[in-house]
Amino acid sequence: MNDTVLNLAAQRYGTTAKALTAMPGGHVTHVYEFAREDKRFVLRVTPPNDEIDVPAMEAILAWMYHLSTNGVSVAGPLPSEQGKLVEQIEQEDGEYVVVALEKAKGVLAEELAAGQWTGELYRSLGQTVGKMHALSMDYVAPERTPGRPDWDQIGNCFNPVAVLDESQATIAAKKADILRTIRTLPKDRDSYGLAHLDLHFGNFYVDVASGTITLFDFDDCAYGWYMMDVAMPLFDVLVLCPDADKEAFAAHFLNHYLRGYIAAKDLSAFWLGQLPHFLKLVEIGVYTQVYRAYDPQDADSWIGRFMAGRRERIENDVPYVNLKTKGLLQAAGC
Fold it and tell me: For residues 70 and 213, what is the distance between their CA atoms, to the nearest angstrom?
């Protein structure tokens, strides 16, 4: 990293280059950790890159800032000394983009051992998501900040950029069917708004000691049905969990997740009844993203576990998981 850029970036967030500690994980972006007022932050410096969409980044960070300053546990952005959520540093080779975010406590959810998961943690996850959706209902983007698009206007797990090839015609037809159903659903204030849309277990941290869940990676956030943020974690946990009885485990997860969710935001029986449709849409979406990379010999990877028998299940209209939604609402206290 260019020393001049690093010094300027550090100064804009009230620290110095010497106080930065390099972190792993950056491919294009350079990532550093620093402390300020007894809190830990992550500084991200992205070199000139044609793929950077600064207005989109500002829109994402504005929403994250709104959530973090209103009590939702997210890795919230730290405004610069000039009060900006995104800083830009002009150099001869182009424009560097700099942001700082709170460093989340705990471990990545997908790395937490199965035995450490408790109903209390699932409830904490549900309550965090419910708080996010409750705030989303009345969110208005700041002036001069662009709004986020709708879910089907950008690439995400529900609307992948990848396209199915001709050999997947039956699955493409199944996707068209489920989209026709979903697009008839209401888009009212209580059901449709700014949502995370990529809420798998690689996108939140878990602090087991405090029971705190911290959400991050809002790059795919867009306007969509709030049920998408219920479908995604359920979808992912059923791939991650070792339990052979998927239906029983799904009920266990949702009983606790929904109990936390409804403590923060109402959820009707109608919307919970739509959950199988959103599960099927994300199932087909993820299949579209990964089927070309599937190696049947790699049974232990996430892709290997997900893809085993997946094409046949989708083509034969097998539900992603069997759910008794009425019983789930009663168990969760709805």
Answer: 15
**Residue 34 pLDDT more than 60?**
yes
Looking only at the bridges linking them, the beta strands covering 204-207 and 107-108 are: antiparallel
Enumerate the H helices of the chain as residue ranges: 3-12, 54-68, 119-136, 169-182, 228-240, 246-262, 269-273, 275-290, 302-307, 310-315, 325-332
Roughly how many angstroms between the first and final C-alpha of the chain, as a whole number?
53
- Give the model confidence (pLDDT) of 181-202 as tens digits: 999 999 999 999 999 999 999 9
Contacts of 309 (CB under 8 A, 6+ apart): none
Domains (range + CATH), the chain? 3-102 (3.30.200.20), 108-332 (3.90.1200.10)
Residue type, 242: P
Q: What percent of the chain has pLDDT over 70?
A: 96
Share of the chain above pLDDT 90, in %: 86
For residue 117, the one-letter residue type is W
Backbone angles phi, psi at 227, to 5 degrees: -65, -20
Residue found by looking up tokens 């094409």 in the block: 311
